[in-house]
Amino acid sequence: MDNQDNSIQIQELEKTNRILQKKLERCQNERRQLETDIATKEFLLKKVICELEESQTNLQQRGQELENTLDSLHQMQAQMIQSEKMSALGQMVAGIAHEINNPVSFIYGNLSYISQYTHDLLRLVQLYHRYIPNPPAEIQTERKTIDLEFLEKDAIMVLHSMNIGTERIREIVLSLRNFSRLDESECKAVDIHEGIDNTLMILQHRLKATDKSPKIQIIKDYGNLSHVECYAGQLNQVFMNILVNALDALEELNAQRTYQEIRDHPSCIKISTSVVDSQWVKIAIADNGSGIPESIQKQIFNPFFTTKPVGKGTGMGMAISYQIITEKHGGKLDFFSTPEKGTEFVVQIPIQQQICPVI
């Protein structure tokens, strides 16, 4: 009896054990399924997070690209406005030069004739003096009234002064026409020295002596340059911008010095040209002004940056000059400045441009 009871208990235990094993297996399967589901959800969550981070990065990049595009559009707009202004200025300068040139050419062309006529008349008067030493009283009175002796000497001097004056006007008109280069908008070989001299001619009024300071000295150290292929009108704008900045720096320094101090240490601008490696031309324009502070030197070529008061500058002059030299001519524009000693701008462009036609 006892053996039978033990057998029954063993069977029940085995049955219970199998039931428990099946439950354990189900629990393990459910646990594995749950772990798989959790892993899947973690993977999906990480994927979503990565996609969100990537999307955020893309949005930031797009935002930066849009901001850069907006800045570029602002710069392009400003450059277009400045270019239009320079184009309008060039047309106005060319128009004025043309209008002045016509009457000046008429006067200049007739001066030689009037000079010859005057010399002939004075020679005739001298003959009258020689052969009629004692003319009637009325002629003698008129001779004293007009001071004939002074008139004979001064007439020649007046004609000479008129000739010098018209020559000066013709030089100014020629400089204006050459500076504007309205008829030379394309790339062609030109004389760089002529462009610099024409620019200096236009700025002559700022170089002259005043009651506050002596004249600004211009030191030219021109090298032996052949003609250089370039956009002459735009290159002249670069020379103008650099020279105007140099003059502004000198005037700012002179405002802080006495007349005697300026006279003892004269303001000057040195312009030198040379050929580099037989393929490049170098133009250096240096002044002995107050120099550019180190804190702003990195911003000199930035659009809209200016140290001048409101209304005195747009901050686009050097930015456009940099674009003209580097992009339009494939050259270099650098500067070297020492505070309290001065600044030197260096322009380097190829002697031959690949985009220029062969002439």
Describe this structure in words.
The chain is an alpha+beta fold. It has a domain at 190-359: Heat Shock Protein 90 (2-Layer Sandwich). The protein is 64% helix and 12% strand. The protein has helices spanning 2-131, 137-146, 148-180, 192-202, 204-207, 232-254, 259-264, 317-328; strands spanning 188-190, 217-221, 228-230, 268-276, 280-287, 332-338, 342-350. The strands form two sheets. Strands 2-4-5-7-6 form a five-stranded mixed β-sheet.
Largest sheet descriptor: 5 strands, mixed
- Mean pLDDT, as a whole number? 82
If classified by CATH, what would the architecture of the domain at 190-359 be?
2-Layer Sandwich
Total strands: the figure is: 7
| End-to-end C-alpha gap | 130 Å
The helix-strand sequence is HHHEHHEEHHEEHEE
| Low-confidence blocks of residues | none
Structural class: alpha+beta
CATH class wording of the domain at 190-359: Alpha Beta
Globular, elongated, flat, extended or rod-shaped: what is the shape? rod-shaped
Named CATH topology of the domain at 190-359? Heat Shock Protein 90
User: Considering DSSP H and I runs of 4 or more, what fraction of the residues is helical?
Assistant: 55-70%
Q: Main sheet: which strands, in order across?
A: 2-4-5-7-6
Radius of gyration: 43 Å
CATH superfamily of the domain at 190-359: Histidine kinase-like ATPase, C-terminal domain
Beta-strand percent range: 5-15%
Instruction: Quickly count the helices.
Output: 8
